[in-house]
Amino acid sequence: MLMAPMAGVSDAAYRMMARAGGAALAYSEMVSVAGLHYGSEKTWELALPRDPEPDLAVQLFGSEPDQFREAAAAVCERLGERLALIDINMACPVPKVTKGGGGSALLDDAVRAARIVQACVEESCVPVTVKIRRGRRMDEEVAPEFARAMEQAGAQAIAVHGRFANQLYRGQASWEAVARVVRAVEVPVIGSGDVMSYADAHAMMERTGCVAVMVARGSYGNPWLFSGTVPTTQQRLCAFACHVHLLEATGAHLARARSLAGWYLRGMPHAAAWRNRAMTCHTVADYLSMADELSRKG
C-alpha cells in the first residue's frame, strides 16, 4: 500500500506519518520539470526527502521531453540512493496543469507521452513509472492502449486511477478499468480510486489483479489505514500532535494543521466545534493546547 502524491498535502510531515503508519512507499507532491529547469528552490524543496525519510518516490509533471530528461538526471544526482523511483504524472485534471499540456492532457498525446517516458528512462538511475487516468473525457476510455504505449516506451509500472479526468473526484471509480489495464500490460499495475480503508485496498487487489494500491484521500487523518489497525481516540489525538510537531520541524506552514485537525478529529463528539476552534490556532502551542483539552474531555 503506497501513499499517493497529493498536491498541497503530501509534504514531508505527511509522508513521515504515512510511513510510520505502514505505507510501503510515499510520493512527493507534484514537482514541475519547468521549475527544476529554471532552478526554483521552492520546486526543489518538494523533491527532497527529509532526514528521517528512508527514501522518496518523486513525481514529475510537465509537457516537454527535454525538461523531463534534465529533471530525471538532476533528481537522480541530488537524491542518490534515497530516490526510490521517478513517477510521471499523466493523471492530474487541474486546468493550470493541463493547459500547459501536462497531467491528464498527455492522455490525448500518446506520442509525446512516450517521448517523455523514453527521455526519463535514458537518464534515470531508478525505475520510471507513470500515473494515468481511465481517460480524459467521460466515456472515452484510453487507459489500456495508452498503458501499453507507455510500457513499450520503457515505463516499469503503471498506476491507474479509475476515473476519467473530467470527473475530477466525483462519482465512483471503476475498478474494472484498473483490471483492464492489468490485462493489457506485462508490467506491474498500481490501482487507485476510492480506497478508503485497508479492506478496500485488499478488495481492489483481489478484484483487479493489481500488485499494489495507491491511497490518497483515504489516508486523511488516518495513517493507520496502511496497516489495517483501528486507533483509539487518544491515539488519534497523539498522532495529530505528532503531525503538528513534524510540520514545525520540517518548516511547513502551520496553517496546514487546520486541515489536519478536521481530518484527525473527524467523528469525535462535537467535531465541528473543534474544527472551528482549529481555525483560530496559529502556533504549535495553540494546536497542542486544543488537543490536550480534547484529551482531558475524554
- Put simply, the count of helices is 13
Biggest sheet strand order reads 2-1-9-8-7-6-5-4-3
Mean pLDDT: 97
| E-strand count | 9
Task: Report helical residue fraction.
Answer: 40-55%
Beta strand %: 5-15%
Structural class: alpha/beta
Which spans have pLDDT < 50 for at least 5 consecutive residues?
Answer: none
Task: List SSEs in N-to-C order.
Answer: EHEEHHEHEHHEHEHEHEHHHH
Shape: globular
Radius of gyration, Cα only, in angstroms? 19 Å
Gap from first CA to last CA = 32 Å
Give a quick account of the main beta sheet: strands, pairing sense, barrel closure: 9 strands, parallel
Descriptive keywords:
alpha/beta, nine-stranded parallel β-sheet, globular
Give a quick rundown of the structure.
The protein is built from 13 helices and 9 strands. With 298 residues, it is α/β, with parallel strands linked by helices.
Topology:
Blueprint lengths: L1 E2 L8 H10 L3 E2 L4 E2 H5 L3 H7 L8 E6 L3 H15 L3 E8 L4 H4 L11 H14 L4 E8 L7 H11 L4 E7 L10 H10 L4 E4 L5 H11 L3 E4 L17 H17 L6 H9 L6 H8 L5 H13 L2
Parallel strand pairs: 1-2, 1-9, 3-4, 4-5, 5-6, 6-7, 7-8, 8-9
Helix pairs in contact: 1-10, 4-6, 6-7, 7-8, 10-11, 10-13, 11-12
Kindly describe this structure.
The protein is of the alpha/beta class and about 300 residues long. The protein is built from 13 helices and 9 strands. A 9-stranded parallel β-sheet has the order 2-1-9-8-7-6-5-4-3. Strand 7, helix 8 and strand 8 form a beta-alpha-beta unit. The longest helix is centred in the C-terminal third of the chain and has 17 residues. The chain starts with a strand and ends with a helix.
